[in-house]
Amino acid sequence: MIQHSSQRLILCIGASKDNSTTHLNRDFYIRIPSDLQRFFPRCEFLKVEQPLYRIPKAGNHWFRMYYEHYMKQLAMETSTYNPCLLHCRDLKQGFSIIGMQTDDTLIVADEAFA
Question: Which domain of life does the protein's organism represent (predicted)?
Fold first, then answer.
């Protein structure tokens, strides 16, 4: 039987798998929950190798990843009003406005852009 805290850990790790090839900007460690320590004898911490959701600073990773994609791959530019608000540079590729907050994105676009 899996204890409640173990279930949360398994769900969090399972939901965070994204096939990411990028690594964190700095070393990040998690303390092993007491009910899982028997699986890691003589070990108190685990090193996180790739970004996960629900950890401090993970939002910075996802914001940067999405932001770079919109700017480089989709040739968008930031609004002079707010750097989290992007729009198409060239209307030939269609109309779109993208609002970003951490790892959440709101997109308003026409059929040509979509």
Answer: Eukaryota
